[in-house]
Amino acid sequence: MTALTERDDARGAETARAAPRHEPSAASDVGAAAARDDVSWMSDAGAADTLRDAGSAHWDGERPVLGRGVVSGAVSPLRRPGALVLVYLGRLIGGWVIAAPLVAAIASSSVGQLPQGDAALFEPGGERLLQVLHQGGLALTAAARESAALTLLFSALGVYLHGVWLFCLGHAGRLGLPRALAAAATALPRLLGSSAVGLVGAALVIALGAGCDRALAGYLALRFDEQRADLIRLAVIVVWLAPLFLLGLLTALTRAAIVQRGLGLFAALKLAARSLRARPVAHGVARASALVWSAAAMGLAALLVGELALERPGALRVAAAWGLHQAAVLVTLLLHGGWLRHTLNAVSGGAPAPHGHASQQGEGSP
Q1: Strands, DSSP E only, in the chain?
Q2: Helix H or strand E segment including 352
Q3: In 3D, which of 183, 192, 194 has the Cα closest to residue 357?
Q4: How confident is the model at residue 298 (pLDDT cuts 50, 70, 90)?
């Protein structure tokens, strides 16, 4: 019996030596390094969530499939009409409320008593406009302060709605609007922080550019005629817009990282900077194309409104002009939604979204 046991043990040892040994491949090493690098820039909580979810995800191409076949990835803004309407109404109502104090101040002035109303402000020569500014200076100043305060309030609301839209665009499948509202509320402090960082950076770039322009104007005045000096200054200003453009790209990518990956502000900034450094041309082209087509839509609307002859009486003409303007606004929002989708895909990085960010079936689609 003992001999048989020893013989079986010897055969088992020979089989183990003869079996092929599976050494870690270069591809697995690269994958492991990529996984370590992917979470190295995250906060501890974000890394823990990502690693926890990675165990329950399978992959469909480059995107993770989380729970009941729902793919986490950015979708077209046309698939989120509820979120699009919410953002549109927020901007529309915000514009009306912000303008209300100034409209009331002008209506209470002498212009408000004229049959043509505030259209008199745009008469050639600007005499009515100067009259209103001279006679109603105090009322207009108070109205401007009130409008400025309302602008700050609705700017914060706009950032919140922006977060809702990002959350809705960043997840495929059916998604309940209450869940998107709650997620945006959770991310709101970080979204406001990213906006503050962008505004401070833009203010510094503008202040530095203004100082350089003043110094350059004095230098050019001594060496060139006025026309050539103005052309040179204009060219320098156009070049100086590049840092502002890059700063806008960085802010947009940071917001997308906050919402899509659930990162803290500094981790999101780091991820956004990495994405911008890796694909500056792709991001720049995507943003520039959205801006160009938006400008084209607004320009077309202006041309069509000019053909309506609004100087003639008729409520239908005014309604048609308003409709054209709002159609152009909706087109620009759709184009902006396409840009947001680009930013969400850029920061996804092929890693699972944090737990609670993946969409679930069975909820209403906003």
Answers
A1: 57-60, 63-66
A2: none
A3: 183
A4: very high
> How far, in Å, CA of 305 to CA of 1, rounded?
102
Q: Which two tokens stand for residue 258?
A: 């906050």
Amino acid letter for position 209: G
Neighbours of 326 (CB within 10 A): 13
φ, ψ of residue 170 in degrees (nearest 5): -80, 0
Structure-block tokens of residue 130: 């100067």
Cβ atoms of 288 and 335 within 8 Å: the answer is no
CB 293 within 8 A of CB 333: no
* The Cα angle at residue 118 between residues 331 and 116, in degrees rounded to 5: 110
Residues 73, 269: Cα–Cα separation, whole Å: 20
Residue recorded with tokens 């699009």: 84
Model confidence, pTM: 0.69
Percent of the chain with pLDDT over 70: 67
Residues with Cβ within 8 Å of residue 172, at least 6 apart in sequence: 70, 71, 72, 73, 75, 359
Kindly state the average pLDDT of the residues 318-342.
92
Q: Is 308 helix (H, G, I), strand (E, B) or coil?
A: coil
Q: What is the C-alpha separation between 14 and 11, in angstroms, rounded?
A: 5
In angstroms, rounded to a whole number, what is the distance separating the alpha carbons of residues 331 and 301?
11
Tokens of 217: 């104007």
Question: 179-230, pLDDT tens digit by residue?
Answer: 889 999 999 999 999 999 999 999 998 898 888 888 888 888 788 888 888 8
